[in-house]
Each structure stands twice: as C-alpha cells, then as structure tokens.
Design a protein that fits this description.
Helices cover 50% and strands 4% of the residues. By secondary structure, the protein is mostly helical.
C-alpha cells in the first residue's frame, strides 16, 4: 500500500511524494528477538538488579555481546506486559490468562506468563503465529 505525501514541496526532506505503510498485522520492529526479550524480562523479574541483567544479557548476542541499557530492559517489560494483556483477545488463551490472574503478585503473573510462552507447543514463535492467526493482531 502506498500513500501520497500531502506536505508542500519546501517542507519535505526529499523529493519522494509517496511512502509505504506496513499493515498493522505485521510484527513491529524490535531491536531484540522475542526469545531475548523473554529471557531479559524473566531474569529481571527473578529479582536481579538492572546491572545484573545487563551483565547476563551480554551473553545473549549471537555473534557479539549484547549491550543493554536500563531503557531497553524497561521496554522488554512493557512488551511482555502488553502481550500478557492481549491474551484474553483469543478464546483459546482465556483459560491460561485466568490461571495467571490467580497469582497474587504482578511479577509472579508475568513470570508465569513468560514460562508458559517459552514452553508453548513449539516455542514462543509458534505462540505468536497462533495468536496472530486467531486474533489478526500481533502478540509481542
């Protein structure tokens, strides 16, 4: 899908008059892969400090050490929280969501959700695809 830019020529930074718009169903870009996001959030929610999480994350990089800052750790937690909040959108996942709600502490709920997502059938990628196919929107 392409749209024409309506800004006056003098206001545009380049000569292009059109731009692409990606459909909302596509997974939004994240600097980290979802398995790394889950591991980072899980490690932080286990009571480790930001410094310890940064040290632990350095081993998650495939080719080179992964350097994290506190904002990226916070963003990982936001992504997990958003995914957790989307679970009831799919009837098939409502039972799991209700199970998580029985836990007292919020961090316990998120830790249980992460564990469930990591162990879902063929992994977290399968969970994301299944969620998208049933609801039409992304999970993570």
């Amino acid at each position: 899908m392409r749209f024409e830019c309506q800004a006056p020529v003098g206001m545009r930074k380049n000569k292009d008059r059109t731009f692409s718009l990606l459909p909302a169903q596509l997974v939004p870009y994240q600097h980290l892969c979802i398995s790394a996001i889950l591991k980072i959030a899980q490690f932080y929610l286990s009571g480790n400090s930001v410094r310890e999480v940064c040290d632990e994350a350095s081993g998650l990089g495939e080719k080179e050490p992964l350097c994290l800052n506190p904002a990226q750790i916070k963003r990982s937690l936001v992504i997990i929280q958003q995914a957790f909040n989307r679970l009831p959108l799919v009837p098939e996942f409502k039972a799991a969501f209700k199970t998580f709600l029985r836990l007292d502490a919020h961090f316990e709920r998120l830790r249980a959700f992460i564990h469930w997502a990591q162990n879902y059938l063929k992994g977290v990628a399968a969970l994301a695809v299944k969620f998208w196919s049933l609801s039409g929107c992304f999970l993570f």
